[in-house]
Design goal:
By secondary structure, the chain is α+β, with helices and mostly antiparallel strands. Helix content is 23%, strand content 35%.
């Protein structure tokens, strides 16, 4: 089956500096992907390469089985059927909502153009706002107009560059979920760039974690959290701490907090020094436990507290505890460890 988007061992360089190193991933029709990483990691350069704004130094980019980019081959951006949503939305201030949405489909007849624009207005929930201008809309409404305008020509791939960065923090996850529903209803294949993992979790089917121009893992949010491919991904996604240990059997690791069982990579043999990832949800509050720790800090999160716990050996753990268990800082509490997924990496001495 032909994939909607295939990026094959693609590298991007500016002058002699390589900013992307042999990135590969693929997406089926209707998939939503997110390129996630810190500023300067190369994620926007990859988005621009897919759009055709940056030529690859190596590798290939295919859309619906057609070669778009290679070292000696380049299909212009306007011929790729790629839509773009920019950080600042770039709406035309002198045009109303319906006119903004219809701007990119002026080649259609008036009746078809109007029908497509009004279908999208309904889809993005802006009924009754057709004649309003961008400055009369909220940030979330402007986001929906920009999305609808990019979707109007029915692009093969929709690219979104930090689309929620100009919105209030408390709005971002909500708008991300709304955008996901809109894209899914219209069957649009989309790739967005973000440095915010909660946005990525809210919108994407697959997330690619990028560091220093290298794609470390392309996977579901669940697997990134519970089955990270490397220590950087484990540290970047979610919260947690690493506890030193030693492999004592093909499926067992011994730490100062106990011995844990689970899948361990074959290359981490018996006697190998390792680090065990312990997430806040692995640390369960239990007053009956013989294991105790001191509450060093607490952060209220509504239904839960995130406690920072200090152990007697000065190590620290994080624990998510239902917020009706309101313990004072410097108090002692009991806990037990429940590691449903054993995440282990080789421990390298500094």
């Amino acid at each position: 089956m032909t994939r909607t988007l295939e990026v094959k061992r693609t590298s991007v360089a500016f002058d002699d500096q390589v900013v992307l190193h042999e990135v590969s991933f693929a997406m089926e029709k209707g998939d939503i992907g997110c390129l996630l990483g810190p500023s300067g990691c190369g994620k926007t350069s990859l988005l621009r390469a897919i759009a055709g704004f940056e030529p690859p130094a190596a590798g290939e980019i295919w859309i619906n089985g057609v070669l778009m980019s290679a070292k000696d081959w380049h299909v212009p951006t306007e011929q790729r059927r790629v839509g773009m949503v920019f950080q600042d939305f770039a709406l035309f201030p002198h045009l109303g909502v319906e006119e903004n949405i219809a701007f990119g489909i002026r080649s259609l007849g008036k009746t078809d153009r109007q029908a497509r624009a009004r279908t999208l207005i309904d889809l993005v929930g802006l009924q009754g706002e057709c004649r309003r201008y961008p400055h009369q809309l909220s940030g979330g409404q402007q986001q929906r107009v920009a999305l609808a305008r990019a979707m109007a020509p029915r692009p093969e791939v929709l690219l979104l560059d930090e689309p929620f960065s100009s919105l209030d923090v408390e709005l971002r996850e909500q708008i991300a979920r709304e955008v996901r529903n809109i894209l899914k209803q219209d069957g649009i294949t989309a790739v967005l760039v973000s440095h915010n993992q909660m946005e990525a979790f809210a919108i994407a089917d697959r997330i690619g974690v990028i560091k220093d121009g290298r794609l470390l893992q392309w996977d579901t949010a669940y697997n990134l959290y519970h089955r990270p491919a490397c220590k950087y991904v484990a540290d970047f996604i979610g919260e947690g701490v690493f506890v030193p240990g030693v492999v004592v059997a093909p499926d067992q690791v011994k730490t100062e907090l106990g011995t844990f069982c689970g899948h361990i990579r074959a290359d981490l043999g018996v006697g190998c020094p390792v680090e065990v990832l312990i997430r806040p949800d692995d640390v369960v509050h239990d007053d009956a436990s013989l294991l105790t720790a001191t509450v060093l800090d607490k952060a209220f999160r509504g239904a839960e507290f995130l406690y920072t716990l200090g152990l007697d050996n000065h190590a620290r753990l994080l624990s998510l505890v239902p917020s009706h268990h309101d313990h004072a800082v410097q108090s002692r509490i009991g806990f037990r460890l429940e590691l449903d997924d054993l995440v282990v990496f080789e421990r390298r001495e500094a």
